[in-house]
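FW: tagging you since you asked about this chain on Friday. Here's the raw sequence from the shared folder, copied in full. Didn't touch anything.
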Amino acid sequence: QVQLVESGGGLVQPGGSLRLSCAAPGSIFSIYTMGWYRRAPGKQRELVAAITAGGVTNYADSVLARFTISRDNAKNTVYLQMNSLKPEDTAVYYCNANRVTAGGYKYDFWGQGTQVTVSS
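HL: got it, structure written out here
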C-alpha cells in the first residue's frame, strides 16, 4: 500500500493563504500524476488541481488564479499554494497519486485528508 502524507491544513481568515504539502514514495512520485481533491460538507469530492509527471497542470475553474499546484521531484512532494481563500474553500483536502498503464490499468492512491477551514 502506498502512503501519501499530507500536511499544512488549518484555520485561516478569508483572503488568507495556506500551503498544503503531500509527500509520496520516491518509487511512484516521478511517474504518477499528483492531484489535490476536496470534499466540502454535504458535497461530492471534486478535483481542485492536478499536475502530471511532466509538469502539465489542470485546475478547477473555482480556484483558477488563486491556487497553484507544483511538484518538487527531488523531495517527492507536491504542493498546493492557496491564496485569496474564501469560505467556500472550506473542505477536507485529499492528496491523490494516479497512473494509468498502457494496458489501461489504473493505480489510484489517496492520503488521509487535511482540514482547511476559512472563517473569520
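FW: Residues 26-29 form the longest helix (4 residues).
HL: agreed, and The chain is about 5% helix and 50% strand.
FW: great, closing this out.
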